[in-house]
Amino acid sequence: MSTTAPPAALKGRLDAVGYGICFLGIVRRELLRFFNQKERFFSALVRPLVWLFIFAAGFRNTLGLSITPPYETYVLYEVYVVPGLAAMIQLFNGMQSSLSMVYDREVGSMRVLLTSPYPRWSLLFAKLAAGVAVSVIQVYAFLAVAAFFETDIPWRGYALALPAFLASGLMLGAIGLFLSSLVRQLENFASVMNFVIFPMFFASSALYPLWRVNESSATLYWICQANPFTHAVELVRFALYGAFNPLACAVVAGTGLAFFALAVAAYDPGRGLLARRGGPPGGAA
Amino acid sequence: MSADEAVPALAVEAVSHRFGARAALDGVSLTVPRGRFVALLGPNGAGKTTLFSVVTRLYANQHGRVALFGHDLRREPSRALARLGVVFQARTLDTDLSVRQNLLYHAALHGIARRAAEARIATLLDRVGLAERRDDRIRTLSGGQARRIEIARALIHAPDLLLLDEATVGLDLASRADIVAVVRALVREEGLSVLWATHIFDEVETTDRVVVLHQGRVVARGLAGALSEPSGSLETSFRRITAGTDAGRRVA
């Protein structure tokens, strides 16, 4: 506060230690917000559980599944659908994070984040990582409940899947981060939900194997193959059963990096979309 | 005075910014000397918030130069922003978190270790008279109390320059007076430099430096007392200047 001799500790640090403090502060804030909003936690759990116990139970006898990697035997539909539902949590969470970015921008708290002295890409990465931390908590809570219902995941699969969940969470969060830069008002976000979340989820291998899709429509099959969410689901599915899917890993990593780069460009104060698309968010000109 | 001390807290030089075809700022220049209170007067839509967005690097200036304590905002953004505290026009506290959690979050954004931050929070909450509300959620505070917390938050990293954008809008008279008093005490007692954007004339004292922004341009500047002449009322002078009858006037 003083211009003469402020205590050095209050001036913060612009080095790696300072950034570490900043990173942890951003993650901690998101976790606090998450745990303060208990209804958010339960609604995040209810959605996949409803799919698992109602939708999957209904399809169990109508949808036959052949033996496809990573499965080494015939599996129940409930078993097949669990990785897709876990990835669905991350998909919704990634989009919810971007929704909160739009909200933060509208109410102005995004400005507080962006006036931090650390590089903007590092702030956005911290925000992204915070969203992933929240989504991973939700995913494991879902897997814990699902474990009581013959989902047949080996114990070591839960640990092996953690890197896959981190990678898919980062990819989906980066997509959401980029989308948040395109959406100027919260009201417009509903259309993003309709045009992004539902197509990504349904045109993927989350609910049905792609060989099934190929039997009905080759075009739809290729759309599903081009959908990065399909690869996020497959990365998670393979990891849960102790296997590695290099194609899925490459697509997830590449898509995540590409969208993060786009988001950083979009939030760039000089070249970004925010600077060019109209007046300042959250305030009059 | 050393050469370093001669460098102003804030130097805005010929800054322009456009949103598409609309010029929000057109060749704006102003300085905030160290340890001084400068009032930025302008009607709604004058460009005050855009100027604050440029100075806080939400947007990069498209033309011109902005420097804080000699650090160019484009070339040394980290060093510049580390010395800047901001109270935005919009409420920016997280209403789901407590006062303490909000302040700790902001301290982390500036790389301040937790122990130092906790001590600083206690000091600042004392200063703004809200020490007893430390663990209350923001949503339980009144508008004036929340504003005082935002000022405490803006000071947590010991900035040398404080920007306040319409900080008293929507508050009752007593809350407004409290906030003005807190900020003026910081200037007087601790040498803080302040740029205070407002359209409320009561908040400006005759010895304050004033910059009048209108339609994205600086149309007058000088000491408030001098600008008030000949009517003796700053408000009357302001109305005349922003009506275009005295555009470009330079006082003092």
Structure description:
The complex is a heterodimer of chains A (about 280) and B (about 250). With about 280 residues, chain A is an all-alpha fold. Helix content of chain A is about 70%, strand content about 0%. Chain A contains 12 helices and no strands. The relative contact order of chain A is 0.13. In chain B, helix 7 (about 175-190) links the parallel strand 7 and strand 8 (about 195-200). Mean pLDDT of chain B is about 85; it is low at about 245-250. Chain B contains 9 helices and 10 strands. Chain B has a 6-stranded mixed β-sheet with strand order 6-7-8-3-9-10, sandwiched between helices. Chains A and B meet through helix 1, helix 4 and helix 12 of A and helix 2, helix 3, helix 4 and helix 5 of B.
Q: How do the strands and helices of this protein lay out in sequence?
A:
The complex is a heterodimer of chains A (285) and B (252).
Chain A: H1 16-36, H2 38-59, H3 77-107, H4 109-114, H5 120-146, H6 155-182, H7 189-202, H8 210-216, H9 218-226, H10 228-240, H11 246-266, H12 273-276
Helix pairs in contact in A: 1-5, 2-3, 2-5, 3-5, 3-6, 3-7, 3-10, 5-6, 6-10, 6-11, 8-9, 10-11
Chain B: H1 3-6, E1 10-19, E2 22-32, E3 37-41, H2 48-55, E4 63-68, E5 71-72, H3 77-81, E6 84-87, H4 99-109, H5 114-127, H6 143-154, E7 161-165, H7 173-190, E8 193-198, E9 209-214, E10 217-223, H8 224-227, H9 234-242
